[in-house]
Amino acid sequence: MRKLLARAGIVLALLASPAWVSSPASAGSILDDPPADHIVIDLVAMAGSGCKPGTADVAVSPDNTAFTAIYSEYLAQVGPGISSTEGRKNCQLNVLVHVPQGFTFAIAKVDYRGYGLLKTGASATQRANYYFQGMSQGTYTSHPIASPLDDNWMVSDDVPVAAMVWHPCGEMRNLNINTELRVSKGTSTDTSFVTMDSTDGSISTTYHFAWRECH
Fold first, then answer.
1. I need a surface site. Which of 3, 57, 91, 188 has the fewest CB within 10 A?
2. Which residues are 23's β-sheet partners?
3. CB contact at 8 A, 76 and 87
4. Main-chain phi, psi angles of 162, to 5 degrees
5. What are the E-state strand segments in the chain?
6. How would DSSP label each residue in 101-115?
7. How many domains does the chain have?
8. What is the residue range of 28's domain?
């Protein structure tokens, strides 16, 4: 995998608004196999309380079927002595996908992973959306994370073909990715937290590509 360098501040991820669900102009049907040319992704900017500069990165899978966003300090927490602002963390990434000539892509599925310690009575929520620069921001997806929990968590968003947001053929538009973690103490009096990171880099958010040829 080729790791990519951050340059400075913004995004994350899912479903399109009706104004942008149509296919890109002059694009063919969805391909069974991705383009053979190696895909390069630049992490142009990052910002947010969950991804301070230098604490996030992106990398492309060797087979061009997906890319991952990896975080090292993405944690929301509540409990005694913890500031209320720590209960909500967000991250905005702005990435530029260098698409091989003659192809376009959409995000077909997103897998979100992390670790959670939620005491009985507490709860958490993971939210996300994505959009291409200059397009509608679409609709946020929201996933509850129930307590009690002391383990890894994972949720997935599968995007129907009719709702996929396609990168416009022949244009240079960055992909904005927005994510958020929230924790509520509820009736619990103990410390609870959720993360979207891992100390060994094994936990990440994975964005699965769908590919089409441009004509």
1. 3
2. none
3. yes
4. -65, -20
5. 27-30, 40-47, 56-60, 66-71, 75-78, 88-98, 103-118, 123-132, 141-145, 149-158, 175-184, 192-195, 205-214
6. TTEEEEEEEEEEEEE
7. 1
8. 18-214
CA atoms within 13 A on the CB side of 133: 12
**Tokens standing for residue 96:** 């530029």
Domain contains 12: no
The CATH number of whichever domain residue 24 belongs to comes to: 2.60.120
Give CA–CA dist 180/206, Å, rounded.
15
Structure token pair of residue 59: 């990398």
pLDDT in tens, the chain (215 residues): 333 322 222 223 333 333 334 445 555 688 878 888 888 889 999 999 999 998 998 888 888 888 889 898 999 999 999 999 999 999 999 999 888 889 999 888 899 999 999 999 999 999 998 888 888 766 688 999 999 999 999 988 888 877 888 888 888 889 998 999 999 999 999 999 999 864 444 556 888 999 999 98
